[in-house]
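Deliverable D5.2: sample structural annotation.
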Amino acid sequence: MTRPGRKRREAAAAPARTARRDEYRRPESRRETKPSGDAVAGKNSVVEALRAKIPAKELLLAERTEVDEKIAESLRLAKNQNLVIKEVPRGIIDGVTGTTTHQGIALVIKPFNYTDFDQMLAKSKSEEGPGLIIGMDGVTDPHNLGAIVRSAAAFGADGVVIPERRNASMTGSAWKASAGAAARMPISQVTNLVRSIEDAKKAGFFVVGLAADGDEELPNFSLAEESVYVIVGSEGKGLSRLAREKCDLVVSIPMNSEVESLNASVATAIVMHWIAAKRAK
């Protein structure tokens, strides 16, 4: 038989136990889901994207969000760029961004306008001098992609190629990392990278892979003055087996033995600089 006083003590302790359990639950404000579109979220990120003039569709502001200095600047920039500005329930922004840590503001990015690969090849072949196209094989970091696009524009490449699967695409983050170069650099998204290699060969390009264990070191690179399609692998796995098998040559960058590997965008920039320097002589 349970005493009446014990029941009262257990009833009083129940809310305290519930409160303690709630302390260890994942906060609602930090839950993340798959985003329904490409969007930049958060006060700092949004205002920086608007300053960089990343192509956007609309600016979303959550209902009852306090308009501070950053949000006020975002609203002004969006208005100056003739963007649609919508005040929406917070749940709408949760769904668009895939997170609830968006601080009540999000910039919805326009889908990137990719260039057809055949058109890229044809244009490259029609230009005076040897062509240079950069292809990516498993580069999943959008900041690396953006940096490679930026370097490609700086060193006179004719285009950048990315596969649809297992590779970063031209999202708002990649566009921002390109520092505006994505607006003037042809970028093609292909369903099959190996097929693009085969098509490039038919068009007269030599296909050159970039890997730590290459056939030639960069200072001895013998194809710099030919039309080349340079394939860059991921930092962790390098070139995929099929892509490597299709390469006419695999080149490595000589490095200090204490350094295991270079960032994909840095390695690509070094190769492009070397090719540009050779062709300038």
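Annotation notes: The CA atoms of residues 7 and 214 lie 76 Å apart. Confidence is low (pLDDT under 50) at residues 13-32.
The annotation will be released with the project's public dataset once the embargo ends.
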